[in-house]
From TrEMBL:
It comes from the Bacteria. It comes from Flagellimonas zhangzhouensis. CDD domains: REC. InterPro entries: Alkaline_phosphatase_core_sf (IPR017850), Bact_response_regulator (IPR050595), CheY-like_superfamily (IPR011006), Sig_transdc_resp-reg_receiver (IPR001789). The modification 4-aspartylphosphate is found at D54. This is Response regulator receiver domain-containing protein. Keywords: Phosphoprotein. GO terms for biological process: phosphorelay signal transduction system. Residues 5-119 form the Response regulatory domain. PANTHER family: RESPONSE REGULATORY DOMAIN-CONTAINING PROTEIN, STRESS RESPONSE REGULATOR PROTEIN 1. PROSITE patterns: RESPONSE_REGULATORY.
Amino acid sequence: MNKITILWVDDEIDLLKPHILFLESKNYKVVTSPSGQDGLEEIKNSFFDIVFLDENMPGLSGLETLNEIKKYDASIPVVMITKSEEEYIMDEAIGSKIADYLIKPVNPNQILLSLKKSLDNSRLVSEKTTSNYQQEFRKIAMDLSMVNSYEEWAELYKKLIYWELELEQIEDSGMFEILESQKVEANSQFSKFIDKNYKSWFKDGDAPTMSHTLFKNKVQPELEGNKTLMVVIDNLRYDQWLAFEKTLSVHYKKKQESAYCSILPTATQYARNALFSGLMPSEMEKRYPNWWKNDTDEGGKNLFEAEFLGEQLKRLGLNLKWEYHKISNLKQGKQLASNFKTQKDNDLTVVVYNFVDMLSHSKTEMEVVKELASNDKAYRSLTLSWFKNSPLLDIIQQAQDLGMKLILTTDHGTINVKQPSKVIGDRETSLNLRYKTGRSLTFEDKDVLSTKNPQEIYLPNINLSSSFIFAKNDLFFAYPNNYNHYVSYYRNTYQHGGVSLEEMIVPFVVLDPK
């Protein structure tokens, strides 16, 4: 292994001989330079892993030399060393993205620690992260055999996401593959849990908070005495919320974070209508036949969310001044952002933002998006980039200025589908890849959660012999006709409607303005 090479630039370099000998005894190679100008020449002629740079030198000062180094090669880590404790020097140096800042006199161990922080940080973090996950792996594996409630599944899923985010930061593909296999096993066990318990939740009354009870159980208690912005980002996974959290923390402090269970199918027309109406789909169909549309009906399926919300607010006895806004494109987002101050007198402002759902569909249809969102890490990165530059963030910033509480949630999540499952249905069978409803469905029993009586889980009977099936794990439905073509086309795309941790365990977050 090649020695790490240090360039030390200091006009009093002879006084640093003990430090240099110490570093050489630790197997570092040290090249010295007596001035900023000479140091720049060294950098242009040789490769250095790191530069130690004195601030107070004749000729080019340390700050001037630092600027020239960054112009030449911004990737070289530079540690600024100075006698001065003046704040403006620290600000200038830190603003120039130095790796570390040391104040003379420095001792050899300070130098060594700075080197490790700057050069060995990734390796040390990687080793520690790997070690910690290896210990946690055993505990998660044990928990998988013991989890018996939705709340416990939510906590376990959060652990898996935590380790996914940690491990993707280090260069250990082996550990990441182990985690991926653990996620597959977790989804398999979760599907069994849902298969066993989902129907009983509607009979025994021992259900977790679900789409149709979210507003009553979690939103309503937050509305008392607080002007509130409620943002529903369609199709937002829990890991995507965690990616957003740091950006939001500049404007809001988190008061409460929890998960709730999206109903089946985990699809917008079912889950989001249930959220706003406070009713299950069969109840919506019965009470509001002019507002509810089944899979086989023509026209938009979520055109009456504001009306559903108004009816729910009445049933809950909430006499609020409220507005509802649905954002489906950039123009609509900018328009709401430019006029958001008009919301200041509302008790409740609800904003539905559709971008993430459109992104997941675009991954299926557009090659460029397939390249940009080739896996979960890239998908998170893409959604975070959108969020940072979206009108939604502008809206949230304005809500903070107005002193509004923020509720951020979603209707359902999505999963990257990998494996096909053959299904046969007639022409009236629904088109979704993660659930099907229709007559005379033929399918692989092991791949699905099924119900021949949709009413038992409060889904509409499209006709007398209709049934529903929901794909488990990372499966997607494919018809035998043109099977290979459709499998190739839809594999590794993001779909929703079925049974998985990613689709059913979704975030509900309450934040207070800073």
